[in-house]
Design goal:
With 238 residues, this protein is α/β, with parallel strands linked by helices. It contains 7 helices and 7 strands.
Length: 238
């Protein structure tokens, strides 16, 4: 898949999944802008890109739950590139392991902020530009927990289920504007953090970040133009 004429924003683009998504688009020739909160992670991404003779177009330290910061981010991208073709939102967080009545209000706010509010703020920020262009692609990363609500993760599951509903409704709203909106539902992703958190698990069954990245690239390609308003399960063998 060739993305040489595409301007891509990957939010959370230096994290466990976001880095692989960013690298996949970079390797495919896109101009990639990433948001990050950790400068060292952005430096590592830039170094990895340089090793293959490429580079992210830009990195921005942005709080994607801040509407004004996101609006400025989008405005800066459009001012430089003239358009914004693709948004992939990989921002998210997990908290669990306790019963609902044992969870605190701070955790509730964190889960809603990272897993639901960020998607709302980003969609609100990029959709008007995509409507002007009459073309765009949006992929939001939710979770298997959005549809499989297990014990000990009520706040996480609720926030991801909300995100799934949010982008499903958005897909219905932008049909006439030639904007594709889809959600990817990974199970436990094979990242260093998850391996550390679950050392006794069978890592071979978990989907790898680079495998999920290839699914995302396909959803953002013209070959997938008929896939719209979908929730794509990427569960591995779990």
């Amino acid at each position: 898949m060739n993305f040489q004429d595409k301007i891509v924003l990957v939010t959370g683009g230096t994290g466990g999944l976001g880095r692989e998504v960013s690298m996949a688009f970079i390797e495919a020739g896109a101009a990639v802008i990433v948001t990050y909160r950790n400068a060292e992670e952005f430096g590592a991404l830039a170094a990895a890109a340089q090793r293959i003779g490429a580079a992210p177009s830009a990195g921005m330290s942005v709080d994607v739950t801040d509407a004004q910061a996101v609006e400025k981010c989008v405005a800066d991208i459009v001012a430089k590139h003239g358009r914004l073709d693709i948004l992939v939102n990989t921002v998210g967080g997990y908290a669990g392991g306790v019963n609902l009545w044992e969870a605190d209000a701070r955790t509730y706010e964190q889960m809603l902020g990272l897993n639901l509010k960020a998607g709302f703020v980003l969609a609100r920020g990029v959709v008007p530009q995509m409507i002007k262009q009459q073309r765009g692609w949006i992929v939001n990363i939710a979770s298997k927990a959005a549809v499989d609500h297990g014990a000990g993760g009520a706040l996480y599951a609720a926030s991801k289920a909300g995100a799934l509903a949010l982008f499903d409704s958005l897909a219905a709203e932008v049909k006439e504007h030639n904007i594709n909106v889809n959600t990817v539902l990974p199970s436990i992703i094979d990242t260093a953090a998850n391996r550390k958190g679950m050392p006794g698990a069978d890592f071979s069954k978990w989907p790898k970040p680079e495998e999920i990245a290839r699914v995302i690239l396909f959803l953002c390609s013209e070959e997938a133009r008929v896939i719209h308003g979908a929730a794509i399960p990427v569960y591995g063998k779990t």
